[in-house]
Write a structure and sequence with these properties.
The chain is an alpha+beta fold. Helix content is about 50%, strand content about 15%. The chain is globular.
Length: about 220
């Protein structure tokens, strides 16, 4: 193929591409402009920072309570933050985990707890109708303010942590036999051995519990 023919093919290709772009531009409807909803912010009398987004088109409420807490604040009681967040909804105000779950489900709500290295959280999702929201908030208040920390629940969770650690050790042994690149892609975080051995019921009732929960942010 001659150089002139190559140049002509190149120019033809560019003309086709330009026509395609113009055609697509004429066919696409004007995209609607979406405004970011304003985030309202205020500080309560007890120092709680609140961030609120009003979305009246959705008949539900999402509440996320975040604490400046987590495993970084465990101190000498390794695992207390994880155990605290796990046991919060295992029983509260004299109600068992099953009773709490049943009442939450009857309201069509969802409550979740969790923790990470530098934070802990409790979340609530509920219908915004007061008939459902107010009872859901009452249950959330019991979970946060009146957790039972039942000894039986504690021992069950500690045993589960032991089982998770043993399962990880078995998986780690199998991963060790894989090629290095595949081994790295399959590796998961090892549960702390100290989590199950060093956390005690006394630790949950001690000042360490307050450090694990931490101030609300």
């Amino acid at each position: 193929m001659s150089i002139d023919m190559q140049h002509e093919l190149t120019r033809t290709m560019y003309r086709l591409l330009a026509g395609t772009v113009l055609l697509l531009g004429s066919l696409l409807p004007a995209l609607p402009a979406y405004a970011i909803p304003p985030i309202q912010h205020w500080l309560t009398s007890n120092g709680l920072r609140v961030y609120y987004v009003h979305a009246p088109e959705l008949p539900m409420v999402d509440l996320n309570i975040t604490f400046a807490a987590g495993s970084a604040r465990d101190g000498q009681h390794s695992g207390v933050a994880h155990m605290t967040s796990t046991l919060l909804d295992s029983g509260a105000a004299g109600l068992s985990a099953d009773e709490l779950a049943s009442r939450i489900e009857a309201l069509g709500a969802e409550i979740d707890t969790g923790s990470a290295r530098d934070m802990a959280w409790v979340t609530l999702r509920s219908l915004s109708d007061a008939e459902y929201l107010q009872p859901a908030l009452a249950i959330l208040g019991d979970i946060l303010g009146k957790p039972d920390f039942n000894k039986q629940d504690f021992e069950r969770e500690r045993e589960r942590t032991d089982q998770d650690r043993d399962a990880w050790s078995s998986t780690s042994l199998r991963l060790h036999r894989l090629p290095p690149r595949l081994r790295a892609s399959c590796r998961s975080r090892k549960p702390s051995r100290r989590s199950a051995k060093m956390v005690s019921m006394r630790a949950l009732a001690s000042p360490a519990r307050s450090r694990a929960i931490g101030p609300i942010s």
